Amino acid sequence: MLLLHEFKYEEKSRKKELLFRNGVYLTSRFTKDFQILLFQIDTFYVEVFVDIEEEEIGYMRAFSSTDDLRPYLHKIDISALV
User: Fold this and answer.
1) Which domains does the chain carry?
2) pTM of this prediction?
3) In what order do the strands lie in the sheet with 56-63?
4) Contact assessment for residue 50 and residue 61, using Cβ atoms and an 8 Å cutoff
5) 7-38: string of b/e by CB count within 10 Å (b at 16+)?
């Protein structure tokens, strides 16, 4: 199992490798400059900020707090559960 603190201190190239090997894509959102892809790895989440103009990963932000998922909650369809 990969731990959040282990992921945070890896080099960017290693983070990409771990993310694409172990991550599960959940959803995405857009800001003015970035497409932000949300992944889950084991017990934490990773936002991948893709620079729209440069078409490359600007940076990655890993977190475990579900409070940080708020920007994505409106995209989740729970109609099948109701």
Assistant:
1) 4-81 (3.10.450)
2) 0.88
3) 24-30, 34-41, 44-51, 56-63
4) no
5) beebeeeebeebbeeebeeeebeeeeebebbb
Tokens of 33: 């400059």
3-class DSSP state of 51 = strand
Q: How far apart are CA 82 and CA 80, in angstroms?
A: 6
Question: What separation in angstroms does the CA of 59 have from each of 13, 15, 32, 36?
Answer: 11, 10, 15, 10
Q: Can you give the pLDDT of all 82 residues of the chain as single tens digits?
A: 999 999 999 999 999 999 999 999 999 999 999 999 999 999 999 999 999 999 999 999 999 998 999 998 877 665 666 6
Do residues 28 and 35 touch, judged by C-beta distance below 8 A? yes
